[in-house]
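Re: the request from the purification team.
They wanted to know what the chain is likely to look like in 3D before they choose a buffer screen. I agreed to run a prediction and write the result into the notebook, where they can find it.
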Amino acid sequence: MKLAPIAEVQPIFMQSIIFNFQYSTFNFQSSLFFLTFASNKEKYMSNIILITGGQRSGKSSYAEQLALQLSDHPVYVATARVWDEEFRIRILRHQERRGPCWTNIEEEKWLSRHDLTGRVALVDCLTLWCTNFFFDATHDNELPDVNIVLEEIKAEFDRLTAQDATFIFVTNEIGSGGVSDNALQRRFTDLQGWMNQYVASKANTVVLMVSGIPVKIKD
């Protein structure tokens, strides 16, 4: 099967999975649910919290609020790859918006090389993290082997979460819509879905965001 050059497919693919990082602030009506995470900070050390949902469901805003409830100085681990100058400026704007209380780390793939012991770390997001591994495994316009890429990401995830820290992962339910007619997108959807399942199986808590409302589905 002849595939379109990756350089042509990549921008279209990225538009389908990268959501706008500009989030408006909003009040969570489910404050009692939210505060259960912050009632005992020590309880959540060495724990994994997964926050999933669709685009514009409020995932990142909720994750940031949660991290600030658990720590006065949380770590923001941004996995986005800087594709162009416009995107670089957007990242800088979001760093400024979060303020000086955050420690910002830009890391496309090898998250475990950063020592996060004793910290509350927000990893935003798994989708972009998987994207970086996926495209780096694409050569000569051949579709990457999803199983090989998946095992590589799982191994790095395990190395990262072996640290004694609280991890909050944000991810996307990108397979909730229709099936794409693009082979590259279908293969990535498989990768993302399987990685989401893996992280959820390891997580102590999983929250599904629905229209800005957090729904706890695993605790």
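For the purification team: The first helix runs from residue 6 to 17.
Please add any questions underneath this entry.
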